[in-house]
Amino acid sequence: MSWRETRRVSKSLTVLYDRVLYLLDDTPANRTLIHRYIDVWEYPDGRIEIRADGAVLSCRQYDKLAEVDQGAVVEHKRLSHALQVAEAIQAQRDNRRASGSPSRTNQGIAVRKPERQAGTKKPREFTQADVEHVIVDLAQRKQAPPPRKPGRRSAGAN
Q1: First CA to last CA across the chain, in angstroms?
Q2: Which of 15, 73, 101, 114 could be a cystine partner for 83, CB 3.0 to 4.6 Å?
């Protein structure tokens, strides 16, 4: 058993399924598929195959809902500020997959909630003002001095 959907191949040899972008290899055979509809097969074990005319196509996937790794923020001294902004934006993002795709509870993924969590937005709803607000908040947190502990006083210092 499998779940099967049809998707259209773009001019840049990409197929979008469940907020994941599949990049088809640039071959003459795949170039003939541009603007044609092909099948995306999803199996219960989580495998996803892109098929055209019964043949499986080789591709790479690019997850549009990827997360910034906390280790990357700590590891990169020069990029840490930009990665912190990306991490803060991702915390406000609605990470639910498309509702028309099959359930993945057999893979240990929780049941999809019908409503998004309060305070989250779809990726397309973010504006430049949202990004600027996050940047200002992070800058203010950095500038605020940490609370100081009272110093030790000795009897001989007075």
Answers
A1: 83
A2: 73
Task: Determine phi and psi for 96, rounding to 5 degrees.
Answer: -70, 145
Render 38-102 in DSSP notation, one character per residue.
Answer: EEEEE-TTS-EEEEETTEEEPEEEEETT----HHHHHH-TTTHHHHHHHHHHHHTB--PPPTTSP
User: Do residues 97 and 19 lie in contact, with contact meaning Cβ atoms separated by under 8 Å?
Assistant: yes
pLDDT digits (tens, 9 = 90+) for 120-140: 777 778 888 888 888 888 888
pTM above threshold 0.70: no
User: Which pLDDT does position 144 carry in this prediction?
Assistant: 66
What is the rounded distance in angstroms from the CA atom of residue 31 to the CA atom of residue 24?
Answer: 9
Say how far apart CA 62 and CA 23 lie, in whole Å. 7
For 51: left if phi > 0, alpha if psi spans -120 to 50, otherwise beta; the answer is beta
Domain chopping of the chain, boundaries: 3-63, 70-143
